UniProtKB/TrEMBL annotation:
The keyword Signal applies. Keywords: Glycoprotein, Hydrolase, Signal. The keyword Signal applies. It comes from Flemingia macrophylla. The lineage of its organism: Eukaryota, Viridiplantae, Streptophyta, Embryophyta, Tracheophyta. This is GDSL esterase/lipase. GO terms for molecular function: hydrolase activity. Belongs to the 'GDSL' lipolytic enzyme family.
Length: 658
């Protein structure tokens, strides 16, 4: 088989047959951005660490200031995520040896389209004009030799790259807003448009063949502009509360920009130039705010059509489980390994309470349905928004209660946070979500509940004994615990649930290292332990039978089975196809830890001082032994949400998992 490039690739490539070229698994290899505070992810904060470096900037998503002038991600962040690329490093924060081949961000908060000299000639003072669009272009030209050496190499590289030129020009305009002088604003328009056109032309001369040029926002709806203009004349506002004159000005500006783009297209017929209608995308939010209550701006902007009556398939998602989906509960009580680097290093850039280098299956699911990452139950604070869902999962927890496990001489510390405990948390919490039966029925009708994956730790506790008989004895008890919890949730008013099966533990690095048999017949052709995978197949079959019984008992409730086994096993059977390292040992090696042959040992777990971490987690399925990397979780989540590993299929998600 021809070896595929080892990059993250959509799960649908094999399972749904969508043919992505082996040579180019992602639409873009890199994204480069120029602009102002709308897309600056840290450049200005490097030089002027004032407001964006203080709380509450970054509080919602990053949980700390990130150099962005928002509470979380920006439009640019959502775009690069949508195309399967990492968040762009800020140019002024680049370090030696840093990976810049997937793109760089040159945007600088407060910067202008026009150079400082031109603005001063017009008695317009903008401090950050020193980092204007032409300065950002110069920075790109200086960086270019680090991206590609020859004209041929650059042409090939830029052919697979996307360049965003703006939004820019907003600060040129903002500097005049206090004068409330529309005539002076209109005088700037041809100059700003010319600056954007000139930069675009220069980029095309550098070899760029695909660009995006955004228009400007409806500033008449902008809080800062509304506060500055502050007119009490009712006729100055439209029916939605926006200033008509200022929105009309932006409409004029955007029309002039679109004319310039059309000229650029005619001058460069082999170059694709896309216009982003920031005005239209944003104005919809102001005109129907309730309709888009929890939807990211990027969702509206990228044109995914939502029903007026039901903009999202689910209003809330609630989750029960163990470390496969715990996003911080266990770390609250036991801040050990998951609170150490390199946990969280790939995506969050800091430990996030997750036992992986980045996002988990649960994170991808809630993102796909347009909801924010779920807050963890044990970390909830007064006034926190809980109406979009909560995560009760606890790393190390079990399906069976601690008393039952102790009767069988099975010791699992976190069994104190078993499935029944998590269910009790939910019941105590329920009055905060809804008061009356009618209110709860209405709320849960639009909510999704995930019950698991759970039971893995009950099983893991017996693995060291290498006793399949003892494992099989647990199966009916685990299945009964999951069934009982599901029944209790249905009695509480829940009408849509997901119950996942378990993973192919015979392919799990921790199990492989623990069983550690040298008998070749114990392994399948891919390097997985056949007996342990056969056990999980048996377990999953019993779980599916129980789910079918639950369906018959509750015909008005939708219960979906998530085939974790099938979704994960394909990765181990064709690792190269998904950008992972291949080979009977390499496929199973943990990215983080220390030891042979699977990169693991009890003495040097991931996060400990002597443990090592691989250079590229995206080439590994396994992260730390028991848990997978974000790259693997992404592919599994895609197969679950978009098919074919859910039975019955899930509601169509508004976002694609890419």
């Amino acid at each position: 088989m021809k070896q595929a490039r080892k990059k993250s690739i959509t799960f649908a490539h094999v399972f749904l047959g969508n043919g992505l070229s082996n040579a180019n698994p992602l639409p873009y290899e890199a994204i480069f951005n120029f602009g102002d505070s709308i897309s600056d992810t840290g450049n200005a904060a490097t030089n002027h660490p004032a407001m964006p470096s203080n709380s509450p900037y970054g509080s919602t998503y990053f949980k700390h200031p990130s150099g962005r002038l928002s509470n979380g991600r920006l439009i640019l962040d959502f775009i690069v995520e949508a195309y399967g690329l990492p968040m762009l490093p800020a140019y002024l924060n680049l370090t030696d040896g840093q990976d810049i081949k997937k793109g760089v961000n040159f945007a600088y908060a407060g910067s202008t389209a026009l150079d400082q000299t031109i603005l001063k000639q017009k008695s317009i003072n903008v401090d950050a004009a020193a980092y204007s669009l032409s300065t950002q272009l110069d920075s790109f030209k200086k960086l270019k030799p680090s991206l590609c050496k020859s004209e041929e190499e650059c042409d090939s590289y830029f052919k697979n790259s996307l360049f965003l030129v703006g939004e820019i020009g907003g600060n040129d305009i903002n500097a005049i807003i206090p004068y409330k002088n529309i005539t002076k604003l209109r005088e700037l328009v041809p100059l700003i448009v010319e600056a954007i056109s000139n930069t675009t032309t220069q980029l095309i001369k550098e070899g760029v063949v695909e660009l995006v040029i955004p228009g400007n926002f409806p500033i008449g709806c902008n809080s800062a502009v509304l506060a500055t203009v502050n007119t009490d004349k009712e006729g100055d506002y439209d029916q939605f509360g926006c200033l008509t004159t200022y929105n009309a000005f932006i409409e004029y500006y955007n029309e002039q920009l679109k004319k310039a783009i059309e000229t650029l297209r005619q001058q460069n017929p082999n170059v694709k130039i896309t216009y982003f209608d920031y005005y239209g995308a944003a104005k919809r939010l102001f005109q129907a705010p309730k309709q888009y209550g929890g939807i990211t701006f990027a969702y509206v902007f990228l044109g995914n059509g939502l029903s007026n009556a039901n903009p999202l398939p689910y209003e809330a998602i609630f989750n029960f489980g163990d470390s496969i989906s715990d996003t911080g509960n266990a770390a609250t009580n036991h801040p050990a390994m998951p609170s150490n680097s390199p946990y969280g290093s790939t995506y969050f850039k800091h430990p996030s309470g997750r036992l992986s280098n980045g996002r988990l299956i649960l994170d991808f699911i809630v993102e796909a349905y347009g909801l924010p990452m779920l807050p963890t139950y044990l970390n909830l604070t007064n006034g926190q928004d809980i109406k979009k869902g909560v995560n009760f999962a606890y790393a190390g927890s079990t399906a069976l209660d601690q008393t039952i496990l102790k009767q069988k001489s099975i010791n699992v510390d976190a069994a104190a946070y078993s499935l029944s405990t998590q269910l009790d948390w939910f019941k105590k919490f329920k009055p905060s979500l809804c008061k009356s039966k009618e209110e709860c029925d209405s709320y849960f009708k639009k909510s999704l509940f995930l019950v698991g994956e759970i039971g893995g730790n009950d099983i893991n506790a017996i693995i060291p004994y290498k006793n399949i008989t003892k494992l099989r004895e647990l199966v009916p008890l685990i299945v009964e615990a999951i069934s009982n919890t599901t029944t209790q949730l249905i009695k509480e008013g829940v009408v849509e649930l997901v119950i996942p099966g378990n993973f192919p533990i015979g392919c799990n690095s921790a199990v492989l290292a623990t069983v550690n048999t040298d008998k070749e017949g114990d392994y399948d052709p891919f390097g997985c332990l056949t007996t342990y995978n056969a056990f999980i197949e048996y377990y999953n079959e019993q779980l599916k039978k129980a789910i079918e019984t639950l369906r018959q008992q509750n015909p008005n409730v939708k219960i979906t089975y998530f085939d974790y086994y099938g979704a994960a096993k394909h990765l181990f059977q064709a690792p190269q196809q998904y950008g992972f390292s291949s080979g009977k040992l390499e496929t199973f090696k943990a990215c983080c830890g220390k030891g042979e042959p699977y990169g693991l040992s009890a003495q040097f777990p991931c996060g400990s001082f002597s443990a090592t971490v691989c250079s590229d987690p995206s080439k590994h399925i396994n992260w730390d032994g028991p848990h997978f990397t974000e790259a693997a979780y992404r592919l599994i989540a895609k197969g679950l949400v978009e098919g074919p590993f859910a039975n019955p299929s899930m509601k169509s998600p508004p976002f694609k998992i890419i």
